[in-house]
Design a protein that fits this description.
Number of strands: 14
Helix content: 25-40%
CATH superfamily of the largest domain: NAD(P)-binding Rossmann-like Domain
Shape: globular
CATH topology of the largest domain: Rossmann fold
Mean pLDDT: 92
Oligomer: single chain
Strand content: 15-25%
Largest sheet: 8 strands, mixed
Strand order of the largest sheet: 13-12-11-7-10-9-8-14
CATH class of the largest domain: Alpha Beta
Length: 387
């Protein structure tokens, strides 16, 4: 599968290495506003003569790729992905799906209109230990409580240290998405208190405590910090799943275990899902070949971003926030802002946002039959940090 990658910054280079190691894909071009960064990425990929460009449409015309990898910063996710979908190309994008839920809903509708796959690389789902934890959780009877403790102290530099709500938007979304995977239900409400410790080197809040109510009354608690030096947890966090028949534990780096009220649990071994972004890339290529719906497909992924936006709204208001209110507010916002008439019409056809995301045929007005292939321009101002 021939791919063009948009974004050749730090994360972009990690993707370039992953693409180079994959037997399923061939890199045919790099897009970046900084052509020097694009050329350096091509050299690092062992392809010094690889075509590079500042403009995605122009590079697509030159290289005829089969798909686009969007490895830009969050502010660029919407314009880059929207343009790629309108060019008739499926997209595998870095998380989050977009900078806001409203933008993510716009891209969800665009995927429906164009008929192209938009998959979000929620890479920490591609972890065999997380899959094993879910198998252990299945031994516990009625699960009622799930918790994650996360504490790290990375000095990234760059855009992360200038982000608003950096922990929630850039890191907690991984844990929120994993919690959805483990629980297998959708969130109902979110309460959050976030803050920035006095010694933090981040501009936005780098610590948070979150409680999420899921369907069925299940509670998920997340306690996290990105400025806690010493005794750091795994990048995956430390997990505890409690049910009527016992508890499962996962350090984030070791095989999970379960205690069935004094008896060790033995979970059935699960098939491998691959490792992080390499697993995402393999799932994306497999989905395009088979037509299966992969983990991270935008309809299924949006709710993880909704949890983040609800947490941010809660910490601002000091109140518990209902998930459906976030969805409906974002829907109104994106309908009002949408400039693509076909995408706006598709958004307006949704009778229930939650239902549309769940694929409920009664929740929308029907699928557009003929995918629209027209190219749409990307505002260069939206891409200033695409590298």
């Amino acid at each position: 599968m021939r791919v063009v990658q948009v974004g050749a910054g730090e994360m972009g280079r990690a993707w370039l290495r992953t693409v180079a190691e994959s037997a399923d894909v061939e890199l045919v071009g790099i897009v970046d506003l900084d052509l020097d960064a694009a050329r350096a990425g091509a050299v690092a990929a062992g392809l010094p003569d690889l075509p590079v460009d500042r403009d995605l449409a122009q590079l697509v015309e030159r290289t005829s790729p089969d798909a686009v990898l969007d490895v830009t910063v969050p502010v660029a996710h919407h314009p880059v992905t929207m343009q790629a979908l309108r060019l008739g190309l499926p997209v595998l994008g870095e998380k989050p799906a977009a900078q806001t839920v409203a933008e993510a809903l716009s891209l969800t509708a665009a995927a429906e209109v164009t008929g192209e796959l938009f998959m979000v690389s929620q890479s920490r789902r591609y972890n065999d230990q997380l899959v094993a934890l879910r198998a252990h959780a299945g031994l516990l009877g009625d699960v009622g409580m799930v918790s994650t403790s996360f504490a790290r102290a990375p000095h990234f530099g760059g855009f992360r240290e200038q982000m608003d709500d950096v922990l929630l938007l850039d890191m907690a979304i991984h844990a929120f998405d994993s919690a959805r995977y483990l629980i297998g239900r959708d969130p109902v409400s979110v309460w959050c208190d976030s803050w920035n410790p006095s010694w933090s080197w981040y501009r936005g809040d780098a610590a948070a405590s979150v409680v999420v109510e899921f369907e069925g009354g299940i509670r998920y608690r997340y306690d996290g910090s990105w400025c806690s030096p010493g005794a750091e947890t795994s990048w995956n966090g430390a997990w505890r799943v409690s049910g009527s028949g016992g508890t499962a534990l996962w350090s984030g780096d070791d095989e999970p275990t379960s205690d069935l009220d004094g008896t060790p649990g033995v979970a059935e071994q699960q098939p491998t899902v691959g490792v992080e972004i390499a697993g995402s890339l393999a799932a994306f290529t497999r989905a395009l070949r088979s037509g299966e719906r992969p983990d991270g497909e935008v309809h299924g992924n949006v709710m993880s971003l909704v949890m983040v936006e609800a947490a941010i709204a809660s910490t601002r208001s000091g109140q518990r926030v209902m998930v459906d209110e976030v969805l409906e507010n974002a829907h109104r916002e994106t309908v009002a802002a949408e400039r693509d008439p076909e995408v706006r019409a598709r958004l307006e056809s949704w009778r229930s946002v939650r239902g549309a995301l769940q694929g409920d045929p009664a929740a929308d007005g029907g699928v557009v039959d003929e995918p629209a292939r027209a190219s749409s321009a990307v505002d260069g101002a939206d891409l200033q940090e695409a590298r």
